[in-house]
Design a protein that fits this description.
The protein is mainly α. Helices cover 54% and strands 1% of the residues. The chain folds into three domains: 32-140, Orthogonal Bundle (Endonuclease III, domain 1), CATH 1.10.340.30; 145-223, Endonuclease Iii, domain 2 (Orthogonal Bundle), CATH 1.10.1670.10; 243-290. Strands 1-2 form a two-stranded antiparallel ribbon. β1 and β2 form a beta hairpin. Its cofactor is [4Fe-4S] cluster. Its EC number is 3.2.2.31.
Length: 301
């Protein structure tokens, strides 16, 4: 793949930082995980929930989750199935199991406090490079490159002059992110949050609002006349009729019951038996559903 990284003069990068952070100071959403009282655990929970899920869907579940489990040890003390139950319809419920596993590790290895060191965060189960960097940056104000979809899109347009970043994060993108990262920790952490918010609210995937963008005058893509994306067509994910939909219906039955569920109750959620069985087998294989010896099913204990 062609390296589309654009070299920016230090003065240009500093100008980007100042403009985007000033915009963020005025327009940032008041989200509960950004408040001081959220702490590192609140930031971590939000990062797990926000993966591939819009803020509007996350907010009510996040509030309920933190009210029930205000510290990692509170979640760790419960069965993993309770995490799956509380996850509700956020989607991708394996995230609930991973968050539960991370909470257990925090309780066992770190005295119940979310570690501040990037390497320790990365060593927690279910935490990858992005989440470790995000928690270290947003919760502890550290200097890390935080590359989510929104940030990658802002960098692709503003610095590389292309409409969309590659499907998967590339080495060139990481180099660019490191080039753009401010030197001091406080500014770097603010830049990480601000560039992410800019992608979420202004430099969106569709219908970008360049008139509201604080760096429109420096944006390589806009200045080049907004050339169209040259890669494969970007298609939204389908849901209706997929195994994901069937899995969601099966889990909804199990979440709604505090007792084990018979096979007959699960058979009623989907008309096609082969797909239904495949979806159920997948849930069992993923550890999201536990089959019992009497032929019933429950959330993992």
């Amino acid at each position: 793949m062609t390296d589309t990284t654009t070299a920016l003069a230090p003065t240009d990068a500093v100008s980007l930082h100042a403009s985007v952070i000033a915009w963020f100071d005025e327009h940032a959403r008041d989200l509960p995980w950004r408040r001081p009282e959220a702490g590192a655990w609140g930031v971590m929970v939000s990062e797990f929930m926000l993966q591939q899920t819009p803020v509007s869907r996350v907010l009510p579940v996040y509030e309920q989750w933190l009210a029930r489990w205000p510290r990692p040890a509170d979640l760790a003390a419960e069965a993993p199935g309770e995490a799956v139950r509380a996850w509700g319809r956020l989607g991708y419920p394996r995230r609930a199991l991973r968050l539960h596993g991370a909470a257990q590790a925090i309780a066992e290895r770190h005295g119940g406090d979310v570690p501040s060191e990037h390497a320790q965060l990365l060593a927690l189960p279910g935490i990858g490079e992005y989440t470790a960097a995000a928690v270290a940056s947003f919760a502890y104000g550290q200097r890390h490159t935080v590359l989510d979809t929104n940030v990658r899109r802002v960098f692709a347009r503003a610095a590389s002059g292309i409409q969309y970043p590659p499907t998967a994060t590339t080495a060139a993108e990481r180099r660019l992110a490191r080039t753009l990262l401010p030197d001091d920790q406080e500014t770097a952490a603010r830049w990480a949050a601000a560039s992410m918010e800019l992608g979420a609210l202004v430099c969106t995937a569709r219908n970008e609002d360049c008139a509201r963008c604080p760096i429109a005058g420096q944006c390589a893509w806009r200045l080049a006349g907004k050339p169209a994306h040259e890669g494969a067509a970007r298609r939204g994910q389908t849901y209706a009729g997929t195994d994901r939909q069937v899995r969601g219906k099966l889990l909804a039955v199990l979440r709604a019951s505090t007792a084990p569920v018979p096979q007959s109750a699960l058979d009623g959620v989907w008309h096609e038996p082969v797909q239904r069985a495949r979806a159920l087998d997948g849930l069992v294989a993923d550890g999201l559903v536990e089959p019992l010896e009497d032929g019933t099913y429950q959330l993992p204990s």
